[in-house]
Amino acid sequence: MRNLKLLKSLRNSELQGPGSPQCFSIRADTGSLLIASQFSITEFDPLTAQVVREASLTADGFLSEDGSGGVVGLQDLAELQSACLATAGGDVVLFNLNTGQLECVGSVDSGLTSMSWSPDEELVILTTGQETFIMMTKDFEPITEVGIHQDDFGEGKFITVGWGKKETQFHGSEGKQAARRKVQEAQPAVAWDDRRPRVTWRGDGQLFAISAICPQTGGRKVRVWNREGVLQATSEPVNGLEQALCWKPSGSLIASSQRHPNKHSVVFMEKNGLLHGDFTLPFSKDQAKVKELLWNPDSTVLAVWLEELSCGDDGHVNTYLQLWTVGNYHWYLKQSLDFGRDPQKAPVCICWDPERPLQLHVVTSSWNSITYSWGWTTERSPGLDVTDNASVAVIDGDKVLVTTFRQCVVPPPMCSFELQLKSPINQVTFLCRPKGTNQIAAFTANGQISVFSQVSEEQADKTSDGFMVVSQPLVLQKTFRLTPAQEQPLALRQLLWLQDELFLAVGAGLLPTSSTILMLHPIQDAEDTLAVRSEMEVDGVVVGVAHSFQTGTVALELEDGQIKKLLWDCPELSVEDWRDSSGCSVSFPVPCIQTALCSISGTEYLLGLTDRSHLYAGDTELASGVCSFAICDNFLLLTTHSHTCRCLQLSGLTVKGLQAALASDGGQNDETLRHVERGSRIVTVVPQDTRVVLQMPRGNLETIHHRALVLAQLRKWLDGLKFREAFECMRKLRINLNLIYDHNPKVFLENVASFIQQLNSINHINLFLTELKEEDTTSSMYPRPDGSPVQPQASTGQKKVDVVCDALRTTMESMDPNKFSLSILTAHVKKTVPELEIALQKVHELRENPPEAPGGVSAEEALKYLLFLVNVNDLYEHSLGTYDFDLVLMVAEKSQKDPKEYLPFLNMLKSLEPNYQRYTIDRHLKRYRKALVHLSKCGQEHFTEVLQLVKEQKLYSEALRLYPADSPQYKFLSCAYAEHLVEQQRAEEGGLLLWRCGEPVRALQAFTSSSSWRNAICVAQQIPLPPDQLALLARDLAEKLTEQRRYSEAALLLDQYAKDCEEAILALITGGIWEEALRLIYMHKRQDITETNLKPALLEALNTQVVFLEAQVATFTRHKSRLAVVREQKEKARLDMLDEDGPDCPDAELYSEASSVLTASKYSQSNSRISSRSSKNRRKAERKKLSLKEGSPMEDKALMHVIGEIITTVDKMRGKQTQEHPSFLF
């Protein structure tokens, strides 16, 4: 849905030459024009308007001096730095572009009718006067000469498989009449056909086609040849086929023109010669002739050069140039250039630029050269408010196809409505005024501006044939003619509709390098005439105009990338440089073909997109690989070559932030990123909405709701308490409904009543409740935009789901409990701990007291709804938990359970004593704590079951709370609990419990097994134990303590309770507790132990420490010496690198480790899986790096690490030795 917009036109009238131009070519390297006439060849630079070089073709006899000769072909050869031209007399001449010399490289006696070079400039085809063609190399060595007219079809001849006669075969929609249809006789070519052959190459240079007059029929035939000059196919007989021929560079179709009895068409052929599609020219069958067809280099535009057949009163004919594009199999006439009847202004040569696909060069008969440069644009309404229909206007000849995307999405070539005009349209623009952006102005080829606007609501027809009119068509309000009239086609460009009757346009300047800004306004005496109210000359060629609807700014982009600000609302027009916040001039580094004004963090910027897909904000490149972009509602939307659509809010970003956001790949929940189909382009964005319309490469449309736009709109609605709009949007687009609460919990809880009133739907409230989760969606799924304030959370200690459910339930109960009964049940069920019993009780209340109000919910309906929310088995069990058998029966009846399954069980329960009944129910429901409470109330006869239940479910603490401390039940339970604790390796706790319950013997056993010797001694003396048994107990405990290396405690037991001082002293000596051992020796006067045990033990400990210290000293000395050697080697390696011009920097000493470190990186690679398993393995991997092996890369660090450990160890021993020092003084 794009149009062609004229960016600039360059006209030169300085060139004058003898004769009239006949052929011309473009130099790809310099952009200059090579023009050949019947007298000379000239190289002309249109930028400087200077003749670069010129050579006479008559001086050397290539053409006759009387001007009767002609040039049939001209081609620039970049590799040879020459231009090749062919004359009708048969000469092939090279024009050296460096020296200006002419050289004849060959001649054909029969003359030449055309010349065509292959796209790679390796081969040339020359058609001769004898109806043959000569294929030559770029060095002009002949390859073959073949007759153009061949009797054979070619190598691609169709094969008949012999499936019956033609009359009996299937003919599709044409029916059986197709078999009986007579073959039309071939008709000769039209009278005005120049009867010259036309040669055209496919883009890859592998095939070429020749259109020539068939000698037998007199009509034209097209033959396709390969690169070796072998015929491939011959076209089917086509009556009315004309001379124009051009192969689409992409290789799919060959374009020509055909005159039908009732129309004039451009037709397309495949390489096998069969017709494949066409489109009709907007002329009657005998009105105009097609002189040439020209595809642009990227195959997107087809230029049709036409000339009227009938002369006017002045004897001259009109000449047209039309540009056609195709989309969705429909051909659109995008630009129509009417050159008028003046023969001096009529084009004689037309050619597309080989480097710039949308640049067209025209040379007129008066030697004027015109260069037109177009760009693709999407004409969309500005989108200021909700009244904007998001209209997109598509030019199609004399019609404007308008689609209003706010109301409907109509795939092209269809549209919402058409605007019919009397002349082809070249430009369309929308009014840049609030509540008027749906108005359209169309600038036609005859120099008129037609204004279309909406009719008033009173005049609008609301229905049509019984259907509602959704999109109201626009009606023609006024047609302006321009004064003075424009003499040249496309004299005005970049039309902008600023105010109701004020237009801005760009025209040619006085110099080729300047432009004129025109402000057009109706004349007071003639309201249908637009005149220039003010104008000004701009130094530079204006290629882009952008207007900001919010600020009224008009920005101009010049050909060299400069950005100017146009002060148009002043009495006199003026321009000034575009400056940034620091006052510096800003310009695009590269000229842009699409521009738009926007505000980024409060600063106005001009965004520009180049033809190389680079997006700029002033002189800063934002992103590359951008296909299209649009500005809407403070959002920047763009599609990329990586098949994504980005949407960024400009108010919360700086230019650097915008760069970073566009450079990032986006996270999992990045709302700014969305994947789209390959090659998608933005058509429009519906203002104040969430819809983005994309067009695919094949032409079809797709509407997406970009997540960033959706969330931004939802936040606006939620801030404005428009809960209904937000809910409907979220339900439609599958946005998590938790966002309604998470966006601003405090505000939501304060406006719960408004939320319920706006939704006013039980189903919608239930849907909201069922989607509630504890997750905060603003932290996970839908993060808040950067810079947005964090909303205060509700100041409650409860969980989110419980808070919302309770708030909604309380409000609904206060508003209308009967109406919202189902939603109230939902609020009970959806809590984190479902309140199913309460919900079931409410259902039971409905059964006992049915609602009297009309529309109330019955108990059966409520129960059915509960069964929908909750599993039937869960609901049945929870109904059992209410101990209400009427409620249980009601649930069981609705649950499709077999009565044989539940009735016997219920009857059995009814026969039980109430407490035992509840115990049985709770045990069945596995509610053991409740079951224990009810069972404890059943009396002494059921205590055995209590004890069994407590042991099975380990409910000891709960059971002890149910009985008095002096009861026998409490004692039994305590003993059972103590046994459980002993089994769980908690013998000391079990012993305390047994001691408390009056079981000292069992408590003593528990304390002894847990080595709790103090409690054991206390219990033993409480029993009391005899002295010999007490001593034996002390020895047993001391033995266990010794095994646990608790020597001091073992010695205390042996000394005080076993009365064995010798064993106590030996225990202390074994534990190295020298001072305490010495104290007991002197206290019990056992100095003999000093000589027999203490001194040998001390000497052995001393010798062990001395040996250890000597080993540490030796290791320390060895590592210290090695460290000095390693450091010396590394210093030498560093100096060697510096001598070899290595890097001179403070880190140069590290470079010696570079190769080794790279080698050592195998640890981080090969051990990457291992190191991720545990911290132990990570430490192991680190130790591997610090290897003490000589020559290892980290040897010096490993040595320093080991030396540090030695120093730490010895330092710790010094403190210990000080403590032991007094023991050596005895």
From TrEMBL:
Its main location: cytoplasm. Pathway: tRNA modification; 5-methoxycarbonylmethyl-2-thiouridine-tRNA biosynthesis. GO terms for molecular function: kinase activity; tRNA binding. Residues 707-909 form the ELP1 alpha-solenoid domain. This is Elongator complex protein 1. Residues 916-1079 form the ELP1 TPR domain. Keywords: Cytoplasm, Kinase, Nucleus, Transferase, tRNA processing. Residues 1-355 form the ELP1 first N-terminal beta-propeller domain. It holds the Pfam family HB_ELP1. Residues 394-683 form the ELP1 N-terminal second beta-propeller domain. Residues 1088-1215 form the ELP1 three-helical bundle domain. It comes from the Eukaryota. Belongs to the ELP1/IKA1 family. The gene is IKBKAP. Residues 1163-1174 have a biased composition (Low complexity). Component of the elongator complex which is required for multiple tRNA modifications, including mcm5U (5-methoxycarbonylmethyl uridine), mcm5s2U (5-methoxycarbonylmethyl-2-thiouridine), and ncm5U (5-carbamoylmethyl uridine). The elongator complex catalyzes formation of carboxymethyluridine in the wobble base at position 34 in tRNAs. It is found in: Cytoplasm; Nucleus. Residues 1163-1192 are annotated as: Disordered. GO terms for biological process: tRNA wobble base 5-methoxycarbonylmethyl-2-thiouridinylation. GO terms for cellular component: cytosol; elongator holoenzyme complex; nucleus.
